Amino acid sequence: MSKVSVGFKLNGKEVTASIEPDLLLVDLIREVFGLTGTKVGCGEGECGACTVLLDDKAVNSCLVLAARVDGSEVITVEGIGSYDKIHPLQEAFIAEGAVQCGFCTPGMLLSAKALLDAKPKPTADEIKEHISGNLCRCTGYSKIAAAIEKVAKGDHA
Amino acid sequence: MELTYHRPKTWPDLLDAIGGLNDYAFVAGGTDLLVKLKRNSFITQNLVDISAVTELQGIAEAGGKITIGAAVTHARLIHSSFIRERAFVLAEAASRIGSPQIRNTATIGGNIVSASPAADSVPALMVLDACVEVDSQGQKVYIALPDFFQGPGKTLLTKGELITAVRITALKPKEGASFIKLGKRKAMAISVVNGAAWVRVENGVIEDVRLAVGAVGPTPLRLPAVEEWLKGRQAGSGVLDDAGKMAIQYARAISDIRSTAEYRRDMVEIVVKRSLGQALQRAGGECAYE
């Protein structure tokens, strides 16, 4: 296959890679850059475990060709906080008990971040709608929605 | 398999990219196509990504018609104040497609060209009298949406042809439209039955009407016989009931993993009745657009 060069901003840092044209964004993130916070669940855009932000929008990285992100900005769960200071959403997820097995959590956090970045004070219904593409089989969603609502209200700012 | 990726940014670049190629496929959002590529149920030597082509991104109105570029995402339709004002039913249908993540990448052109009988944008487009603009070897060809679909996954497009835009008729005063979807759950559900209605009402009389239902036949269907029957009638609940019952006979529903043919036929009545009722309400301005 003829390789494709991509240059993009990954979690704030300019990176480049030479990749196969059919490589998926999730595999670029996990296999080439070693950022394994982004999960592969269904691989078909049903579960949202692979959610990342592409130019500030939540996308399923399992359904985006890596070659497409040339010139774009990608944010994964590793890029939303630091080891010294985790993101307010991460704090709230912990405080509210919104994490059980943790597999959906990175995707949930990024869907929530996309929402709060675009609309800092969403309604409860808007929160539910924005995480509707992220499946969680442990929590029943209410604690996740409560955690997001707390951040929106400034309780974890 | 040798695969090459192309990502033109303009229409001339796109023509350059496909110029010397024999075997190529267009990809826009990729939310359907990449699943097929992964399953090896679709194979090509050249992927031509049209999602960045400037000329395919527009939403513009001229003479009461709205032209939407093929690469416009569902999220853009939902958030476009212009679409919300002039063709709300399309934003309504787009908001029921997939998930926020899917809607951020999947495109209107892709939803049409995938030709799923259950495609949610299609009934809304059909009642807005949509036609697709196809580029065929440099010529623009316009095809009415109901004629475009030939069966599940099958359209009139031939090799090398590309949908460049879809053109719809904007709503005017005294007109209303509505989209209804029945799925197994509210989000991330392929429609069991969907449908849309558009009406123009004058002094309580239905002057003109368009109805479409999806997931109850090999392609989404217009219901011309029911539409003809409705024209000239006084809008009222009895008329809605009769129109819904009449629609059942035109459904060619099948049973699959999502539902049974019998249930789908029953739901055609409900979807027609509800979408028509809501369209009438919206035409009357009593609860416009909500």
Q: Give the CATH H-level superfamily of the largest domain in chain A.
A: Beta-grasp domain
Name the CATH class of the domain at 175-283 in chain B.
Answer: Alpha Beta
Number of helices of chain B: 12
Q: What composes the largest sheet of chain A? A: 5 strands, mixed
Cα radius of gyration of chain B in angstroms: 19 Å
Q: What is the CATH class designation of the largest domain in chain A? A: Alpha Beta
Per DSSP, the total helix count of chain A is 5
Count every beta strand of chain B, where a strand is a DSSP E run of 2 or more residues: 14
In brief:
The complex is a heterodimer of chains A (157) and B (290). Chain A has 157 residues and is an alpha+beta fold.
Q: Can you offer a commentary on this structure?
A:
The complex is a heterodimer of chains A (157) and B (290). Chain A is built from five helices and five strands; from the N terminus they run E-E-H-E-E-E-H-H-H-H. By secondary structure, chain A is of the alpha+beta class. The termini of chain A are far apart. The model of chain A has no long low-confidence stretch (mean pLDDT 95). Chain B has 290 residues and is of the alpha+beta class. Chain B is built from twelve helices and 14 strands. In chain B, the strands form four sheets. In chain B, strands 4-5-10-6-7 form a five-stranded antiparallel β-sheet. The N and C termini of chain B lie far apart (51 Å). The A-B interface holds A 1-2, 4, 20-22, 24, 43-46, 48, 51, 54, 57-60, 62-65, 67-68, 70, 111, 114, 129-130, 132-134 and B 1-5, 7, 27, 29-31, 34-35, 37-38, 47, 49, 51, 75, 98-102, 104-105, 186-188.
Describe how the helices and strands are arranged:
The complex is a heterodimer of chains A (157) and B (290).
Chain A: E1 4-10, E2 13-19, H1 25-32, E3 51-54, E4 57-60, E5 73-75, H2 88-96, H3 105-118, H4 124-130, H5 142-152
Parallel strand pairs in A: 1-5
Antiparallel strand pairs in A: 1-2, 3-4, 3-5
Helix pairs in contact in A: 2-5
Chain B: E1 4-6, H1 11-19, E2 25-27, H2 33-38, E3 46-49, E4 59-62, E5 65-69, H3 74-79, H4 81-86, H5 88-94, H6 100-105, H7 108-113, H8 121-127, E6 131-136, E7 139-144, H9 145-148, E8 149-151, E9 154-155, E10 162-169, E11 175-182, E12 193-202, E13 205-214, E14 221-222, H10 224-230, H11 237-247, H12 261-283
Parallel strand pairs in B: 1-3, 2-3
Antiparallel strand pairs in B: 4-5, 5-10, 6-7, 6-10, 8-9, 11-12, 12-13, 13-14
Helix pairs in contact in B: 5-8, 10-11, 11-12
